[in-house]
Amino acid sequence: MRLRTVLALVAVCAMAVAWPNLYRPHVVMPDGEEHVAGQLVIQLAQSQRDLINLSKQDGVALFGIPALDELSRKWKVDDITRLMGNPHPNEIDKRLGCDLQFVIQFGEDQDIAPVAAEYRARPEVDVVCPNGVMHLYDTPDDSLFPDQWHYQTLKATYAWTVAKGDTSVVNCVLDDGIDYDHPDIQANFAINHAEDINHNGVFDSLPAAQGGDIDGIDQDGDGYADDVIGYDFTDGDPNPFPHGSDTHGTHCWGITNAVTNDGIGVSGTTWNSRSVGVRCGNGESVFLSAAVAGIYYGFLRNVFSYSMSFGGTSPYAPLVTAGEDATDNGSVLFGAAGNDGLRVQRYPGCDSDVQCVASSGNSDKKSGFSNWGPWIDVSAPGEGILSTKTRSQGSYGTMDGTSMATPLAAGVACWIKSMNPSLTNQEVIDKLHAACDTMPDSLFRIGELGAGRVSLGNVVLPLYYTDLKLENWRFNDASGNNNGRPDPGETVALIVTYHNTAGWRDASGVYATLTTAASGIEIAKDTARFPDIPNGTSGDCSADSFVINIPSSVPPQHITFNLVVHATPDPAYPNSSFEVQVGAPRVLIVDDAVGADYGKYYTAACDSNGVLHDDYNVQSSGSPSADTLKHYPVVIWFTGDDSTTTLTSTDEANLGSYLDNGGNLMISGQNIAYDIAGDAFLANYLHAQFSIDSAGATYMVGVQNDPITGEASRADTMVLGGANGANNSRSEDGVFPANGGIGCAYYKGYADTTVQGVVHFAGAYHVVFFSCAFEALDHSTTRYLQKWTLIARILKFFGEKVPGVAQGQPTPDINPYVLKISPSPFSKIARVEFTAPISGRMQLRTFSTDGRLVASQNADARMGQHVTFYLDALHLANGIYLVQLSTPAGLYARKTAVLK
Q: Which residues span the domain enclosing 510?
């Protein structure tokens, strides 16, 4: 790798040439930019050239320019390094000021911003910037490369940075022919120069008399006349061009061998490797004789890897023998698992000398069409694979199948061989298997998808990086209630375990930092150190754990902690996160809706506020006892559409006991008042008197300054209908307040506005009674009071703390994974863009400043895939919003504003 070579040479020459310490820690800024700690690059003004006299006094590095030397002393600059080592710059160097560029170095812990500001303010200085860290990516310039999702999954750009294949390593796709004049194919053939009569490096299928390569003479005596690029073993001639609309072979060939970095079309896995073109069948079949002949022909052309995207239900002995022969001659063979979607064997994929390849999708799970079983050796992407097609079929296109996965896996093997041509075929297979990624598929866990999904990057990364994965975490709260969980009022130790994957670099100097965006949590010790973690082993921070204070004022909630691990060499994937429950739920949601699926509206309203809750189902468990209820300061009870047994006498007795002991009850049901109109419980505990059994209204209007249904400036409106509610409002009971109850929502359009749909009471206990279906409230627009806002207000009315959503910035990651929002502020539509840092589910959630979830979107994405979400301001009020991206790799957030 070029950079590493340069750094190594610098190290060797350290005795002769001064150079800044580039192995200092890296600092990641909130916008994703990364720089070396305590270093700035500056360029002096042209007027200073003849004044420079570098020296050191008392450990302080000086320019010999008074104003700059004053800054050196102030900021304790200990090194100044000229970037142009040539002591005799030419006139162009001087004109551009190249000889006036320096790195200045000061303390690692010093924030560079104030230092940069002071240098930037000096007239002696023209340019000031951080010593930036730019990560290596070697992305080909092929125009369709961004659409080849499988290379992002395989981390190909990492791999291609280190090695781009070797023209001496040859592969062969046994299929239905190849469009060898395709502009994205022609340059990657292994040319048999003895048969290339006109010596132009391509196959011209014209007679020699007309300037072509066909003369019928076997110039190299290998038994195949005119085989410039390969052979057609179906028709027995040197022209492996496909017939008619056959494009399968051209597609498979391009997956492995399309010309990479030529500015057009697609990229091939092997980059610089070469291929022999053979034709062994037609658009539907490959012939046994042709396939066997094709393998043997490969020996003449030094073929290392064979791809066979065909098969049947039985092994053929000649093909088995040919495969064994090829293996013994140092080659590797790959065969498709088949597309039946069954646990069945297909051949030659399941032959003993062939690597059997299953297909995976962009979620790294088995493709639905792919066969599986313990005979699978590896899996590879096989869905929506973009590659070459014959020019008559459009030149490029996507196809699905284990047929696509097979040349991709074979191409990875060929590329591994190219990295180190001295590797044997078995060593290549061993490296291929060791580099496979695990798959989030139950079939993988039981060993029926082979070693996993193939990877290019994982072959390279272990050469230079550690792979410290968060393996386990636990809390020590022995000084608290010793339940292994951080609870309010406790100071706990967090002990984290990392595992360094076998085959990667040994990790030394390991430490990690801990952050959280949760409000109120105090991380008393945010850095923990670990012992050295050699590859294949684990290590924890039990000797130097994190320390976290959970103030007693923190409400129960789920909290996400973010970890960044550091080591020498660097971890390939330093960021991780985990979620933990803090405290026990104080809310019990009682589902008394006789089987109707309304619970989700109540749990979602609580979840949107970050409120922990337990759930209880009356239909399956019976009426909750008074002893059960008393453990929860808040009970949310709903009866849904029930009209005859909304509250039984047992329910009333248990709830009465609960309230007598100071409980807080929110209860909802559109028939409760009608059903228990004659029971004392309605007046004495729900503080309501039955009026009507159906108001026939859709809207309810609240009361200004009411703690539940109004604000200081307005009375809120609620709508009992719409697609974003349960849409079950059929019989809205009307009630009057009783015994100190306060009505806070009347039915709009009903003649008697003293009839209420919501009553609340505050005394020795608190009650909020919805005599309508709370679950029916619509939340499609912020013009109406929404369920999660109501829940938050009700909990605060009960004296509960509502966690909401913390506004702190989560641990940022490096570009290009940070969020970009444009325009910001926005009035109509904003684009939220990012590059997925890992494959999996991406969830974009938008919160208002009071912690309400106002929008949520999900998408599955592949690592490296550019993803765009859209924020619609139609239902958002003017104000500030927190846009938070949750990924399997951690959290990312950015604020934006709506300004209409």
A: 470-567
Q: What is the DSSP string of 61-118?
A: EE-S-HHHHHHHHHHT--EEEES---SS--HHHHHHTGGGEEEEE--TTS-HHHHHHH
Please give the Cα distance from 288 to 300 (Å, whole number): 19
How many Cβ atoms from other residues are within 10 Å of residue 724's Cβ? Answer: 15
Q: Is 816 exposed, middle or buried (0-12, 13-18, 19+ CB in 10 A)?
A: middle
Instruction: Give domain status of residue 350, yes or no.
Output: yes
Is 418 strand, coil or helix? helix
- Contact call for residues 391 and 179 (beta carbons, < 8 A): yes
> DSSP letters along 341-391, please?
SSS---BTTTSTTEEEEEEE-TTSSBPTT---STT--EEEE-SSEEEE--G
φ/ψ (deg, to 5) at 874: -55, -40
> Considering only CA atoms, which of 620, 679, 690 is closest in space to residue 648?
679
% of the chain surpassing 90 pLDDT: 60
C-alpha 379/C-alpha 372 separation (Å) is 10
pLDDT on residue 753: 93
**3-state DSSP helix/strand/coil percent for the chain, to nearest 5?**
20, 30, 45
Q: Is 638 inside any structural domain? A: yes
Can you tell me the distance from the alpha carbon of 273 to that of 171, in angstroms, rounded to the nearest whole number? 8
pLDDT tens track for 131-186: 775 443 334 455 676 778 887 788 777 677 677 778 889 999 999 999 999 999 99
pLDDT at 14: 30
Cis peptide before 825 (omega within 30 of 0): yes
CB 702 within 8 A of CB 747: no
CA nearest 248: which of 187, 168, 307? 307
Which residues of the chain have a pLDDT value below 70? 1-20, 22-23, 30-34, 84-86, 92-93, 98, 133-143, 145, 158, 161, 779-782, 804-818, 837-839, 849-851, 862-865, 889-893, 900
Residues 289 and 407 reside in one and the same domain: yes
Residue 145: predicted pLDDT: 64
> Both tokens of residue 805?
């959503």
Distances (CA, A) of 383 to 121, 237, 284, 455: 56, 34, 19, 16
pLDDT on residue 55 = 93
Give the integer Cα–Cα distance in Å for 702 and 718.
8
CATH classification at residue 695: 3.40.50.880
CATH number of the domain bearing residue 846: 2.60.40.10
Kindly state whether residues 513 and 458 are assigned to the same domain.
no
Q: Which helix (H) or strand (E) holds 178?
A: none
Backbone angles phi, psi at 601, to 5 degrees: -70, -30
Do residues 618 and 762 both lie within one domain? yes
The residues facing 207 across adjacent strands are 214
The residues, ordered by sequence, that sit 6+ positions from 238 with a Cβ below 8 Å of its Cβ are 195, 203, 205, 214, 224, 225, 226, 227, 228, 230, 231, 232
Do 279 and 255 sit in the same domain of this protein? yes
- Residue 647 and residue 608 in one domain: yes
Q: How many domains does the chain have?
A: 5
Cβ pair 213, 198 in contact under 8 A: yes
What gap in Å lies between CA 103 and CA 119, rounded to an integer?
12
Report yes or no: 743 and 662 within 8 Å, Cβ to Cβ.
no
- 320 within 8 A of 353, measured Cβ to Cβ: yes
CA 114 centroid distance within chain? 35
Looking at the chain, the number of H-run helices and the number of E-run strands are: 20, 45
Nearest to 841, CA basis, from 797, 880, 885? 885
CA of 353: how far to CAs of 63, 317, 322, 329, 426, in Å? 68, 12, 9, 12, 11
